[in-house]
Amino acid sequence: MYLCGMAQILDGKAVSSFFKQQIATEVKEMVASGHRAPHLVAILVGSDGGSKTYVGAKEKACVEVGFAGTILHFDESISEEELLKEVHRINLDSSIDGLIVQLPLPKHINENKITQAILPEKDVDGFHDINMGKLTKGDYSGYISATPLGITMLLKYYHIETSGKHAVVIGRSNIVGRPMSILLSDSSETGNATVTLCHSRTQNLKELVAQADIVIAAIGKPGFVTGDMIKPGAIVIDVGTTRIDDSSKKAGWRLAGDVDFTSSELKSSFITPVPGGVGPMTITGLLFNTLKSRKRQIA
Amino acid sequence: MYLCGMAQILDGKAVSSFFKQQIATEVKEMVASGHRAPHLVAILVGSDGGSKTYVGAKEKACVEVGFAGTILHFDESISEEELLKEVHRINLDSSIDGLIVQLPLPKHINENKITQAILPEKDVDGFHDINMGKLTKGDYSGYISATPLGITMLLKYYHIETSGKHAVVIGRSNIVGRPMSILLSDSSETGNATVTLCHSRTQNLKELVAQADIVIAAIGKPGFVTGDMIKPGAIVIDVGTTRIDDSSKKAGWRLAGDVDFTSSELKSSFITPVPGGVGPMTITGLLFNTLKSRKRQIA
Questions:
Q1: Which of A72, A117, A142, B37 lies in the 20 to 30 Å Cα band around A253?
Q2: Is A102 tagged catalytic?
């Protein structure tokens, strides 16, 4: 039986540093043996503050591990056709290994059309139908989208056993909840869990969360999961990153997770903080995918 | 509250006839307006009795609705390369709308390689990564694999509400359990259920099944789900089709479902029999996909 106390923090920042060091070492060896370093291109359209921050953090991470990182910043007036042309140009450019398009895009651009135009081999965000299909089938030769991938890396790092556990995933987005639910129930190293996928239509959410050995909260509702909801000793992964006003912060806002940390920390065995939990692991997942793409070209 | 009694039988045979009549009408109109009828090709390799039966039933169904149906039967000595050539030839043949390859294939042939070689537009079994990826993302422009599709058609026919219900899917195969779990939890007409996916590593299966408003059994273990396991009034869908010896039958065997029908019928509100439940709906799903492919070419 689990004795309530204080959970171990799943330190995404530290684990991310650990993996980034490994990636940096591989890049150094790659360059030393005469190959060019991996190159990630991020397309940013418009001037949304959040998007700028995310893309900036990804570029910074590229530099840290020795990748080339390029941000292509377009005005929000760019047409779908022009953007598609950029994607095709990058698809054909053999000096680029990964291409991500920061979402959301302006309303006059069909996001799915852009996402599907990216060559699956360069789709390091794992949003292309082919990569999503492979993930669904348990074929890991493609790219797993960065957040679920980052979470599995975190689970592996802390030797958290998922097999036979009951995982409750809250949120069915194509980027997080859905692929996470698939990965956890697959027959992989961080899989073999019994997975319940909950969402806005779920009626008995509290009852279900109370049964969970592992809770993954990915709905974007600050503080939605509270300590009284979770089973003593549960593992709690918080994917939420909602900006909420906070006048005590220099920026005037702070990131809030989907989990009420204070109450949940007392009941869980492992918990991710926000910030410093899943966020850094997402970027590490992206770096991992970009390195994979580069290594594939060399092989 | 549900009062125990006798469940309503979800009559896959009758519902299949209903949908086949609709398809036949569409085909007649298609032909009357000068277009050719849909054409489904099935590749059969070797002489497995089960495979022959399944392919035969599919061809018979094609004839019933006015499709052209062709079985290409190869000796089990056919090489992977030769089989790939056949697939490519059919991909290029504009007089063929759908291609299915009956599984399993002989061991010297990589099944995934063959499945992925089929043009996604002709992959009416919905096994191609692109079709699986679309399904995962809730994009129904591709093909949903025939058994899950057939089950959703059955649910629709009987106006069975899935939204907000707790569905427990037993079995995580790429052909049935996995896509079914995705479809039920998606935001579609026969979705919006809270879905728990169980499998061989699930530890508390009985507790979970006891919570289910909808049970989908797809594990291939005859009589695995018994009446004492299910919640009164549950909807029970039996995907199992295991051949078991039965000397009272002319063929010497009979099909056995994953559900113990006698005990489950007394506790459930709706239940599919085996045979005559999901089986005929699977074939109807395949016909539906083939018609969809043909209509797309005409449009």
A1: A72
A2: yes
User: In A66-168, where does DSSP find H-type helix?
Assistant: 80-92, 111-117, 129-136, 146-157
CATH 3.40.50.720 at B145-279, yes or no:
yes
Q: What is the structure's pLDDT at A4?
A: 59
In this complex, do A194 and B174 lie within 8 Å of one another by their Cβ atoms? no
Instruction: Give strand pairing partners of B282.
Output: none
The distance of A134 to chain B (nearest Cα, Å) reads 6
**A129 annotated active-site:** no
Please report the residues numbered 3 through 62 in chain B whose beta carbons come closer than 8 angstroms to any beta carbon of chain A.
none
* C-alpha separations of B276 from A192, B33, B67, B269 in Å: 32, 35, 22, 18
CATH superfamily of A146-279: NAD(P)-binding Rossmann-like Domain (3.40.50.720)
The CA–CA distances, whole Å, from B134 to A7, A119, B37, B169, B234 equal 39, 16, 27, 20, 30
pLDDT of residue A3: 58
ipTM of the modeled complex: 0.95
Residue A165 has pLDDT above 60, yes or no: yes
Q: Catalytic: which of A97, A123, A125, A238?
A: A125
Over residues B266-270, mean pLDDT:
96
Residues of B in contact with A163 (CB under 8 A): 201
What CATH number was assigned to the domain covering residues A34-119?
Answer: 3.40.50.10860
Q: Is the model's pLDDT at A299 over the cut of 90?
A: no
pLDDT in tens, B82-115: 999 999 999 999 999 999 999 999 999 999 999 9
- The answer to whether residue B206 neighbours chain A at the CB level (below 8 Å) is no
Closest Cα in chain B, distance from residue A211 (Å): 10
Q: Using DSSP, state whether B5 is helix, strand or coil.
A: coil
In this prediction, residue B1 carries a pLDDT of: 52
Give the closest residue to B100 by CA, choosing from B146, B63, B139: B146
pTM of structure: 0.96
Selection from B179, B77, B184 nearest residue B136 by Cα:
B179
